[in-house]
Amino acid sequence: MTAAAGARVLDRGLAPERYARGWHCAGLADTFRDGRPHAIETFGAKLVVWQPAGADPDTFGVLDGYCRHMGGDLTQGQVKGDEVACPFHDWRWGADGRCKQIPYARRVPLRARTQRYETVVRNGQLLFWHDPEGSAADHDLLPPELPGVGTDAYTEWFWETVEIEGSHCRELIDNVVDMAHFYYVHFAFPTSFRNVFEGTRATQFMESKGRPDKAADAGGYSDVDMVLRSEATYYGPAYMINWLEVDYKGFVTEVILINCHLPTGPDSFTLQYGITVKKPEGLDDKTTQYIAKRYAEMFGSGFLQDVHIWQNKAPVQNPLLCEEDGPVYQLRRWYEQFYVDVADIAPDMVARFEFEVDTTKANEFWHEEVAENLRRREAEGVAG
Ligand code: FES
Ligand SMILES: [Fe+2]
Question: Which ligand ends up closest to the CA of 173?
């Protein structure tokens, strides 16, 4: 194919071969507390997760899923005491990655060790550290503890998992700076929009209102009676906390949304999201649960709107941008720090960077367009 003179060439690039360094979330810690080994597909591999029998409730083992003896699948084994036992010849592996026992052998070979991952339970979720360079876990980079979450002040987590095929997880990250897609994809007016990147964190501050030309059940944030004030921070490459104030006809609810993912292959990932809602004063538990479930469905439908775009779009290394698009290139530079060796992190990947998108022109246009849609609908309604 020859390009017409002056036509911009869309550079699809190649998906990176390595996986990001940082804390990743395996899911709710409770999922792994049943005394059985569990499988997690990630980083092009399979990990085994289990809880050692004698351990305190927040201690877990996470190892490469394949036994170093003859490659048995540890996720199909059993938990025996503190160890995970391989289904092939019953070698016992400890949470520290060492082979502790071979019941039929006189002794365990020296240096019988496998790949292990350090874990932390935070806000009821099991996080583990991944670094292709094999560094020790950096606890300074953990997401913060959320005061009140896990107590009676908040609902339990609503937790969902979605497999995404055919997209690199950078598509998800790009959303951090994407003001305009809130109107087109999520059916809301983004009235204010600002980003701050610094160190291993990237934040989006946003306010939005629903579009009155979309039915309240159009999904996403389209409800016209709803104003959202949102602050969303990525703590590293794969784990975001989104603090939301949802103002529904003057009734304000505090919602915390977790958006995290595990890359599974070069162009696939597992998206997980969780919702917890601060129980409003004077509301009974049943009503609160109902509200939390509704918000979980709403944000869930919002993710699916993004997923549809990702699964059909092309990857683009050289997006062609206008002023209202926000700092896509700076965000991607920030994201690159997780894909290079620590020694190669450049100052501009981690420097503080702040940018506010001027949403004036966009909202003027969008309000006219919405008004026109409403006029047309009314005319059609009258005619029909
Ligand atoms: S392959 Fe695991 S014990 Fe032999
Ligand atoms: Fe989105």
Answer: 2
